[in-house]
Amino acid sequence: MMKKRSWAEPYKIKMVEPLRMLSRKEREKAMEEAGYNTFLLRSEDVYIDLLTDSGTSAMSDRQWAGLMLGDEAYAGSRNFYHLEETVREVYGYKYLVPTHQGRAAEHIISKILIKPGDYIPGNMYFTTTKLHQELAGGKFVDVIIDEAHDPESEHPFKGNVDLDKLQRLIDEVGADKIPYVAIATTVNMAGGQPISMANLKAVRELTQKYGIEIVHDMTRVAENAYMIQQNEEGYADKTVAEIVKEINSLTDHATMSAKKDALVNIGGFLATNDPDVFEQARNLVVVYEGLHTYGGLAGRDMEAMAIGIKESVMDEHQKARVGQVHYLGNLLLKEGIPVVKPIGTHGVFLDAKRFYPHLTQDEFPAQTLAAELYVDSGVRAMERGVVSAGRNPETGEHNYPKLELVRLTIPRRVYTQAHMDVVAESVAEVFQNAHKARGLKMVFEPKYLRFFQARFEKL
Ligand code: PM9
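^ thats the input. predicted complex w/ PM9 below
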């Protein structure tokens, strides 16, 4: 019998950043001062930072070298042309408008494509995406498959669109009220779950019949491509790079937060195949971001992004990236911890409803769990439940999502397997003491994207 051979990261570590761990007493004080919101902690008070994979990845030596090639001209920087060429070559979109990060691209595309009274179906909401749709006068409609709202469902492609739900919406409101379908690869709020190529093709076929376009949130497209390679029939022999291009070819426009897949600390873009949309976007970007050849970025940022995009579609990179997330997920599953199944690509999502069956959603179980975890070990996670879901803009009531989750998000190329072991042990400890948790009340609530700045007190 062949012995199982382990895999390892396709890089070695050249520079380290020391970590510091506060005492439990100090962590209790820091959490209270932060209003029980992990976004309001100082990063220096955090031991292992799993708040987000956004802008937190480690750049490669080539990316750092690229920074030195920054052409900081106001107009026509050579790094812009390098980025444009890379987006065409790796992603296949014709036109590029750089932006400082993903939500800026969402702002611009929403302003161009949405008219007041329009409906925007999508494979689950994302916080910033939905807000920009609403600010442009649109209404988001969730058309993801039901399995995506069930943390226990082991469906391998929980990011899939339910074609019946989409058809029903078209029949109800009419295709002329639906400028586009918003498709995310992978679906963050569902637990980092991929969409299958077969489903995307079916969505394309249905929408083309009605002249409805597809806007692709390609923030984690290479991770989605890796899951298609691993789990979808007919894709095992294709490279991640080939699958990424095929996904993109089924869509019309794209928004990108390059802070995730593309391995940079800041950056994003809007890409499109439509020359008219490109012209309008070039015009808007000068109002909100900067000239159309830098969009709020320094030349060096665009250079690092161009290099990061190429590294992100390498098979061995994705194997290690997603492999590490699954390593942590499997440790937690072995301990019997309630997590979203299957394990996603950018983080492990704890099911706070099953941690705290004694708390109602009005007592913010996921917010409570993220706070408890920090106090236990200095591990910082993020709430993805009722606080993130915000309020219904028409009724002013809380939105109560079925998924009440805490996300342990893994930055790319930053932490080791030993860090994952420490995280798993802390989650297990918090789970054992779950019956003692009392929940929180919200004492300060900002108007937009409240999860970032809301403050809480212990009940
Ligand atoms: N995602 C995340 O931690 C950053 C802050 S939380 C709002 O997961 C998708 C799928 C994202 C995303 C950011 C954005 C916005 C768009 N789509 O943060 O503006 O996951 O670059 O991108 C975060 P920016």
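The chain has two domains: 24-46+315-458, 61-312.
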